[in-house]
Amino acid sequence: MKLPCIINEEHYRLEVPADRRVVDLLREDLGLTGTKEGCGTGECGACTVLVDGRSRLSCLTVAAQIEGRRITTIEGLADGETLHPVQQAFVDHGAVQCGFCTPGMVMTAVDLLTDHPEPDRTEITHAISGNLCRCTGYQKIIDAIDRARPSIPGPATRPTLAAADKSPVVRPMVRAATRSSRQIVLPDSCDQLWPLLAASPGARLFCGGTDLFVWLRAGRCQARLLVGLERIDELRGIGSDGDHLRIGAATTHAELLADPTIKEHLPVLHQAVAQLGSPLIRRTGTIGGNLVTASPAGDTLPPLAVLEATVELRSATANRRLSLEEFLLGPGRTDLREGEIVAAIRIPLPPPGSLHSFEKVGRRAALACSIASLAGLLDLDDDGTIRTIRLAWGSVAETVLRLPQIEAALIGQPLDDTHITAVLPAVRKLVRPISDVRAGADYRRLVAANLLRRLPTRFCSDHRLAAGRPQRP
Ligand SMILES: Cc1cc2nc3c(=O)[nH]c(=O)nc-3n(C[C@H](O)[C@H](O)[C@H](O)COP(=O)(O)OP(=O)(O)OC[C@H]3O[C@@H](n4cnc5c(N)ncnc54)[C@H](O)[C@@H]3O)c2cc1C
Ligand code: FES
Ligand code: FES
To answer: Where is the FAD-binding PCMH-type domain (predicted)?
Structure first.
């Protein structure tokens, strides 16, 4: 494809295969080797660049996605011989040893400080949680970002697609060494999407690509045509529809996290999304993609199950709505049909005063697939007994698991240790985990029960229940 884009303020028209990874395009075709490749699967952050001013993993981005965009790599940050303030702070504070992670760390820090010039150390730690460093130690890196803060001008205007479009001048032709027979198309609307899907049965959809591009690299997707949904505005955003919230399938996890409505009305979903992947994965990964991947470990699935969400499916000729249970058929299997997309997720608003909780146990804090997770949504009567309770576990069955027997046993009981403990043996018996690289089945049974055991404590520690006697928040 002929690809107009701006890289480090130089205007290019590249001739590259549409599925060329941006990290390869930068390093191999353009010689911009400051951008590093560590894992190639989104887990280390070494390949982070800025796309229209926002940090993005170049190993999980393909050429077609940067058409008309403005890319900044580590080579484009300094002003001649003068380092960017973040680069200078890394030098001054000894935040570099082997330097392999440094370009990615610096790009992530520049993004953070552009948006948010006054982050505290916790926010800095959180922002770089998708960037791994093997040798310096994070304290010096955090110190450097902390000290660079005052030198960054306030919230900057991020370069936009429109700015890139208008740009004139130099357009060197750069021809990539590789060829590919795979096509990638990014329609701007559903009207453009339907004819594409009709003409190409077997085309594979993607949105953020945080699952699909990993499968492509592993040879687990052979589709010749990939159709990206990220530019279709009608599939994005969060809206209210009477007593329901409607979340567009192409809404990213970062957008969900930033939305005050989600935080206020759906804390259980907000808590789950906050623990999904890393900030860099959340930047591009979407709720629709998480649903269609249908992993038993998918973090949005337990909250969507307790919220009793429905899935809106759309094709050129019909719309249908399915409950989550109808949509999810098993690991990696859904009821999505040829020519159909997930357009949105519809969620009834829980009653005000409901108690929400999501907890996941993984092998580390960021970038961890869950060993087991539990979403809970409860309503208490005035005397503190449970009026309604919905519980959904992740990673302990072929798909997200509700246990109506356990919910029924808890209704009418106080939310306390005694009554929760009484149902734990049944939980251990009813879950159906497998053993895999992350954990054994027996351990998962134990964790599934322990997550429920912790539920009253979690609400108490949130100060939503008074000591000894549960109360409404
Ligand atoms: C390093 C790393 C860490 C991760 N950590 C987590 C984690 O902690 N928890 C977790 O749950 N997930 C995690 N993931 C998985 C992934 O980020 C999520 O599942 C994400 O939500 C996928 O969304 P996407 O838009 O990137 O999907 P894509 O990769 O674009 O697509 C995934 C699948 O969904 C289909 N699809 C996408 N959108 C639609 C649509 N609207 N209609 C129909 N089909 C569609 C695609 O065809 C494909 O089959 C991680 C991934 C990586 C690489
Ligand atoms: S190379 Fe590790 S995240 Fe891209
Ligand atoms: S400085 Fe060596 S990996 Fe971070």
So the answer is: 177-352
